[in-house]
Amino acid sequence: MNLPTGTLTFLFTDIEGSTGLWEEKPDAMQTALARHDTLLQEAIESHDGYVFKTMGDAICAAFATAPDAVMAAVGAQRALLLQEWEEGLKLSVRMALYTGAAELRNNDYFGQPLNRLARLLKIGHGGQVLISEGTSALVRDFLPPGATLRDLNAQRLRDLSRPEHVYQLDHPDLPSDFPRLQSLDNPNLSHNLPEQVTSFIGRDAELAETKSLFSKTRLLTLTGAGGAGKSRLSLHLAADLLRKETDGAWLVELAPITDAALVPQIVAQVLEVHEEAGKTILESVTEHLKKKQMLLILDNCEHLLSACAHLAETLLRHCPRLKILASSREPLDIQGETTYRVPSLSFPDPAFQPLLASLDQYEAVRLFVDRAVAVLSAFTVTNENAPAIAHICHRLDGIPLAIELAAARVRSLSVQEINERLEDRFRLLTGGSRTALPRQKTLRALIDWSYDLLDDREKLLLRCLSVFVGGWTVLAAEQVCSGDALDAYDVLDVLMALVNKSLVVTEVKDCKTRYRLLETVRQYSLEKLRTEHESRGEGLFRRHCEHFLAFAEQAEPHLRAEEQLEWLDVLDVENDNLRAAQDWALEFYPEAALRIAGALWWFWFLRGYWTEGRQRPLAVLSKAAVSEFTAARVQALNGVSLCTYGLGDYGALQGPATEALRLARGLDDPWLLSFALQMSAVEAVCSFDLERAGAVGADCLALARALGEQWLLSWALFISGNLQMAFGDFEGAYRLFTEGLRPAKAAGDRWVIGYLEGHLAELELLRGEDKQAEEHFTTCLLLVRDLGQPAGIILGLQGLAGVAGVRGQCVRAARLLGAVEALREAFHYPLEARAQPSYDFKLAGARCGLDEEAFGVAWAEGRAMSLEQAVNYGLDQHTEDI
Q: d(Cα 347, Cα 649) in Å, to the nearest integer?
């Protein structure tokens, strides 16, 4: 379907009271809804409209012209009126039309016009058709015969910054008498909800969840970090629930109040309840509310928790039809309370280089753009500034207030400059609204407010937790943060208090709980630690370093065993902490930095972190204070050699490989010596010194056989097999690779098994055994895929391209090779000179059955594949040329 673009008129519809109808007559509703959908679809399509989304009983359609949309609405309402419904059922459908420009993405529309239209639809009644002012101007001279527009004046729609002038479409065949619109201006709706001066962005999922929760409880408390948008969400939710409360919704703003004794008094003032002789003010409020069906909104309770808890508990006990919606950084902790933690807005991961076309799906980005346009009308998002916007939203953790403060800076700074200055975010993010609460004017004041509400132990632990980067476990917190003022047994209790106060975020995955600070809170707490508690900080950083050193050394042997994937994932989760520990140790504890490098060498190589795996060890090896003859130094040098090889920088291999071998010969550690010999053999091959490579390779294989350690032997056989290939002895290489599979499988290292399988596959291909080659390449690809290392994936895909070429599946071969080229470019993985003949053979196989145009098309299709798509395509053995 080719959906229209540009300035369009949108039609939204839904069935009034559908929830109750489903409860009363579910079977009849199922039949009726199907007929409803058909009638509306026919009316829309008969007037050149396009249904682009259905959600339950709601239908969304787009029209190229406004008159067509009006004709479709009239036609649909007439058809619904004439329809005879089962079991006396009557469907009453409300409709609304709005004209504006929206973005088309993935067969769906996005943009402000659709937000305003959704709000417009909500104030209507079943059978009514509402039209926005802009649409009315376009259709006034093109209405259906007998139709007129009735002026319903400007209406205040919930959470929109400006009213909308609304018209009702009247037609002789349609009902025209309806109750007052259900806007916030309706005098029948009692409330004191403030008019919003800025638009409400996103939060569709949160609204749905909180509405569902509020249907099952009388006290819902929205919790979350400062600036997360709790107050705004509570107001939006209250506006949605307003119609259900016959005595209205009443907001009690507690942020300015500092005296807890005044809480009942403030509630009384809002409700216009006067003090009575012989009664406390709370008793008077309770008496007033006993028979009321009302929603009471207690906003910003965190600094008055005990008073708010007592108030809520008393009112709920004596006022059976009262509901309370509270917002606080921690729960009220009373019986019957349901809590909902308000998350940050969704934000992009800048690591994936988001472009303009994909940014609008993220709420944080939409908020940034909306607020930036408000202060600089000429502001636009481009492919040039899109990455910087993504970085800003990511670095500010999607916190709405922080994003609004950042967006305000576009008056004087480019988006790129704002992103660069976020290193000093507490100085940059200032200057909020003059009418805002003091804590909402600067980012520092926002967190000061939360910090000052903590007790001494909570402040202490928050400062201590700032040494963690990327999160922590309870065990890590107990080991790192305990000390003179806080013992290990206290850490969990105080940590839970910080979670309740929304300063620590919890994440549960695979039945394991992990904790983290939002980056803004972490930087604030770290600054407090360094400026106010410098002496304690040194001990904390040392304990942090020692904890993650022990963790890295514990993980190292598991990376070469069957539990490899599990430990790789754990190391990835803790990688930021490992980097932070090594960075600190590099300056204050070089021996620990060296040991961390010696433990992480295989992790860095397997995950393809080759630049890091070379640069970090070299930085610590340059420190004069580091001991020379240690196992950690040799292993770090071996890791440097491996990662240098992975980077394809063969000219730089000789230094670390030679140094590792020299030092290994001076240590009583045959395992390290054997591996150093292996890396020396690799270096010799890359230097085209085949004679030395053969001699060193023979020594390392002999030593590995003598030791009998399975992983080391499988690696030595893999290196020796590669040496035989370099010598042109393919049969000898085949025997060594085959022999290597047994100890490799016994050890359980997927990388070694996968590469042995891949090299055996190459030899099978040379033998003309395409079936065996395909099996080996497929096994290789399956094994290395989960490791996340692109080099192994490239090996498998390139090999399968060769199999396809041999079989005459030229389109498949060309696609796979196109995908391989894109992956090489993306991951900076060069083609080795000695692998060029094999690659040329596979390329020739792809080209032989295709002309240049067909080859180019298939090649481009392969290049356009994502990594996941390329792997899935490679593993699909039933793919045929079309």
A: 37
